[in-house]
Amino acid sequence: MSQISSFDFDGEMFDIGGERYLRTGELLTEQDIADLKKKDAIYFGAIGDPRIKPGILEQGILLKMRAVFDEYINLRPVTSWFPFVPLKREVPFDIHILRENTEDFYMGAGGKFGPSFSEKKNADGSYDSSVSVQRGMYNIGLHLNARASDDDDFAYEVGLLSRKGITRFADYAFQYAQKRGEDRVTLVDKANVITNNYGFQREIFQQKADEYGMKLDFMFVDAMSMAMIVRPETFGTVAVPNLFGDILTDLGAQLQGGLGMGGSGNINPHGLSMFEPIHGSAPDIAGQGKANPIAAVLAAQMLLDNQDFPEEGKMLRAAVRHVLDTNQTTPDLGGKLKTKEVGQAMCKYILNQKR
Ligand code: IPM
Ligand code: MN
What we know:
The protein is α/β, with parallel strands linked by helices. Among the domains are: about 75-105 and about 160-255, Isopropylmalate Dehydrogenase (3-Layer(aba) Sandwich), CATH 3.40.718.10; about 110-155, no CATH class. It has helices at about 20-25, 30-35, 55-70, 165-180, 195-210, 220-230, 240-255, 295-305, 310-325, 340-355, and strands at about 40-45, 75-80, 95-100, 110-115, 125-135, 140-145, 155, 185-190, 215-220, 235-240, 265, 275. An 8-stranded mixed beta sheet has the order 1-12-11-2-3-10-8-9, with helices on both faces. The longest helix is centred in the middle third of the chain and has 18 residues, at about 195-210. The mean pLDDT is about 95. The site of manganese (II) ion has 2 residues, from helix 7.
């Protein structure tokens, strides 16, 4: 990139991930956090390792990073990268999903009780279970005293939304839609069942819509998953709480050609943001040169845009368009190239553009 633009890139590699965890037992350490804080942005590879119990790396590294850096917006564009859109109708779309990234059912707040957990039983037969959540915005301790007939075990997970959390999410969504020249935001939820959380969220979004003089459309997540397939072109900026956002954005990635096509930005508008592909580490094909690099390239493009290098970001997008148009792709897109070769084709294209 430095050969064709004034963009000066000084990167430091951090050995954070499954390999180091297996070697040293470390996940995201205090030292890592302090070192990362000095950077302008984080470019994150994919996480997941079949040798490690699911949840450990995800919670200890990825979700922790999103939480400690308070990256409360997860931007996941869903763009029609023809001809890889698997829909029958060839209609262009460019949905920008804003997934709330710090609250909801992703706070790790929950517990279990019942006869199999009798070591936790109180003298009076009840179970105490406490969760504490410490965030920049607030600290909360939740205390549950459960009393249940002794014939079954129970598990629960608390989904929390805060007024401050919803408010900053809504502000970001309306401002984002405004910047895109749109007059509305679509809010996705399940307010007909999870009435406390999502009813509260609707109220605050509605107030914000009025404040910004913009429209607000409500969609239930089940209907939204159909609508994204039936009429994707009708959506612009879409705000979704964390868990449903996780699910809808895999659907979104597939709509643009597969998980190998989805970039993602974990954004703290006033702090350190982190960019990553939506996909995981794909251990089944690791090291074989089969992985589609486009999602990672699109994550880099989002990083460039975020750091105020829009021209450079455009070059990366153009390079993606070029390899798609010339069939220089990995097997998941029907091509014959290896991961590295697709990357080389993109570099070559970018360099040629400038001559
Ligand atoms: C994603 C991933 C993560 C998530 C996992 C790995 C914890 O699926 O970035 O979408 O659920 O957010
Ligand atoms: Mn996901």
